[in-house]
Amino acid sequence: MPRISGGELLVRTLIRARVTHIFGLHGAHLEPIFQSSLDHGIPITDTRHEVAAGHAAEGYARATRSLGVAMATAGPGFTNILTSIANAYLDRTPVLYIAGSSGLNQAETNTLQSGLDQVAVATPITKWAHRVTVTQDIPRLVAQAVRLATSNPTGPVLLDIPMDILGAQVEENSALVPERVLLDSRSMPERRAIDEALDLLRSASRPVIMVGAGAYMSGVGDELRSFAEATGTPVFSDFQAHGLLPSSHPLYGGTFHKMADLASPGERPDVVLAIGVRFGLFTLGMSDLLVPLAAKIIHVEVDPKEIGRLRQAAVPIVADPRETVRAFDAGTKSFQWPDRSCWQQTVRTAKVERRKRAQKDLERTEPPMHPLQAVSAIVESIAEDAIVVGDGAEAYHWMNEVIHQNRPGSYITHGFLGAVGFGLGLAIGAQVAHPRRQVLCLVGDGAIGFTIAEFDTMVRHNLPIVAVVMNNHSWAASQHFQEIVSGKNRLSATGLRDANYHEVARAFGCYGERVRELKDLGPAIKAAFASGKPACINVSIDLAPMPPEVHLLMSRH
């Protein structure tokens, strides 16, 4: 009877789960997985740091709405990837993390990279964490992990697999690989709730639709557009849902923070349909700066814990967003919807006025370059279907002002953890997922330092990502915070050198260019993509301006 390893059982199960790519960094504890992946032609993108592998798996999952897989060896490999696990947990990103560990037969022997209960560490920041103790259990437990990661609410899981369990040879027929691993279990909305929600929307004078990450992950798109058009309701999105309704659509109002522009009493929403939205950071918590306290909320969410967490729901619907919007859309045929052209014009006018307020900054001619000028030039210089990754405590806030995407999953940026330095990793995952699309990573000069060696990963794996470094030689968010809270003469540990990050990228074999004038930025980005190489464009920008969104956040305190 043929005998196979635990690594072979794991890879066969991943194949059944439709996994086609793995991210990781080699360690002896994981060797059987590397060998079996080689045998089956499953590519492994090996990074220079485990946290980048974890973030790449996140980027892959977010760009594809499917499972990401990351591997880390025992001990420091596992602790290095913890930030990614926490990030995926707070953002509900479906990632399977596989951690190697010392052998069961080495317990309490003070052997290499042992003595750490990895499952105990991971349990609070995963949907499920488990240690495999029997080789024959690998297919069953991998399948269970995948199902848990990809079932609503989605999120990360961790399997700790000791090296003797992973490397053990067992009889092939003693551990059957499941025929079916993935499930498609979508919770359906109740008819009563659909009718109640539609009645409330029909009676509204100033309704808006807010779509969040849950809406994006459910795959709602055409249904959202049809429903918004049928009801004449403007749509706002968080970053992950950006593009569900194309930015070019006349009903698209912008990202959530732009709802603050609807500030006058007669311009504030009176009914909010929140689809896949988790109230908190991106809705400014319990404040009424975005969602008026008097507004009635219809809240569609897969996780009942989110219903009423911060804002009371007039109509709570615990169901899959796509199935719910389908039901909404079907229900629109039963009503004559009111003319909302005046309300739509109010939302469009707010967008125009916001652009007018920014015009002075966009027209500035004296150096250094205004950050808003930089991100505007970037957006104008990329392909229509480009994927943009935003990283940095302030850099991405500037991009939020101008980003316009017409495809969902095209703008990947910070979530609830607020982790800085994950951009290159996310970009790697997004480029692997979509090798024919442009991927641009906007990153602050502080954030680029976290994983700058990943330029080597991009070169080795032929990933032509263009990283644009917003260089103001400062931890700008920290400096601006200190200026406001402690005073401009009380700055501490916020300064950076005006470093040549593009030269570092060149040393790894990338295309690199320094840009100091606005007229050179667009051509530099186009030249970088035309090179076919990974690239770093190092852009000098003004430190003084603060993004409007940051001003809004500061107004809460």
CATH top level label of the largest domain: Alpha Beta
How big is the Rg?
24 Å
Shape: globular
Measured by DSSP, the beta-strand proportion falls in 15-25%
Structural class: alpha/beta
Number of domains: 3
Distance between the termini: 69 Å
Describe this structure in words.
This protein has 557 residues and is an alpha/beta fold. The radius of gyration is 24 Å and the shape is globular. The model has no long low-confidence stretch (mean pLDDT 95). The strands form 4 sheets. Strands 3-2-4-5-7-6 form a 6-stranded parallel β-sheet, with helices on both faces. Strands 11-10-9-12-13-14 form a 6-stranded parallel β-sheet. Helices cover 38% and strands 16% of the residues. α1 runs parallel beside α7, α3 packs parallel to α5 and α3 crosses α16. It has 3 domains: 172 residues, Rossmann fold, CATH 3.40.50.970; 155 residues, 3-Layer(aba) Sandwich (Rossmann fold), CATH 3.40.50; 191 residues, Thiamin diphosphate (ThDP)-binding fold, Pyr/PP domains (Rossmann fold, 3-Layer(aba) Sandwich). The termini are far apart.
Quick gist of this model?
This protein is of the alpha/beta class and 557 residues long. The chain has 21 helices and 20 strands.
Record keyword descriptors for this entry.
557 residues; alpha/beta; Rossmann fold; six-stranded parallel β-sheet; 20 strands
Summarize the topology.
Layout: E1 3-5, H1 6-16, E2 22-24, H2 31-40, E3 44-46, H3 50-64, E4 68-72, H4 76-80, H5 82-91, E5 95-101, H6 118-122, E6 128-131, H7 138-150, E7 157-162, H8 163-167, E8 169-171, H9 191-203, E9 207-211, H10 213-218, H11 222-231, E10 235-237, E11 252-255, E12 271-275, E13 296-301, E14 315-318, H12 321-331, H13 341-362, H14 371-380, E15 387-391, H15 395-402, E16 411-412, H16 423-433, E17 439-444, H17 454-460, E18 466-471, H18 476-485, H19 501-507, E19 511-515, H20 518-531, E20 535-540, H21 548-554
Parallel strand pairs: 2-3, 2-4, 4-5, 5-7, 6-7, 9-10, 9-12, 10-11, 12-13, 13-14, 15-16, 15-17, 17-18, 18-20, 19-20
Antiparallel strand pairs: 1-8
